[in-house]
Amino acid sequence: MIRCNKCDVEMFTASINTTYPVSLPVMLVNREKGLFATEHKSELLCYVCPECGHIELYAKDPQKLKSK
């Protein structure tokens, strides 16, 4: 598990969702240039420290963000 860089406490996972009109996960997008360009996407992972509120964000599948 991930520990907080500020207070060395174990962080918990939380989800970041849109709230309107429906709840959807937030995505990281790497879009290639061009009219019919491909979008490479990965969900976002969020970790929160229960002591100080520090937040860390990570790409769930960073390999999916790479351009081919």
Structural notes for this entry:
This protein has 68 residues and is mainly β. 0% of the residues lie in helices and 34% in strands. It contains no helices and 4 strands. The protein has strands at 12-14, 27-31, 39-48, 55-59. Strands 1, 2, 3 and 4 form a 4-stranded antiparallel beta sheet that branches. The protein is elongated, with a radius of gyration of 15 Å.
Descriptive key words:
single chain, 68 residues, mainly beta, 4-stranded antiparallel beta sheet, 4 strands, 34% strand, elongated
Number of helices: 0
Radius of gyration: 15 Å
Cα-to-Cα separation, first versus last residue? 31 Å
The main β sheet shows up as: 4 strands, antiparallel
Helical residue percent band: under 10%
Find the count of extended strands (DSSP E, 2+ residues): 4
Overall average residue pLDDT: 85
- Helix and strand pattern: EEEE
Given the helix and strand composition, which structural class is it?
mainly beta
Percent strand: 25-35%
- Uncertain spans: none
- Which overall shape is indicated by the principal axes computed on the Cα atoms? elongated
Indicate the topology.
Layout lengths: L11 E3 L12 E5 L7 E10 L6 E5 L9
Antiparallel strand pairs: 1-3, 2-3, 3-4
Short account of what is shown:
The protein has strands at residues 12-14, 27-31, 39-48, 55-59. It has 68 residues and is mainly beta.
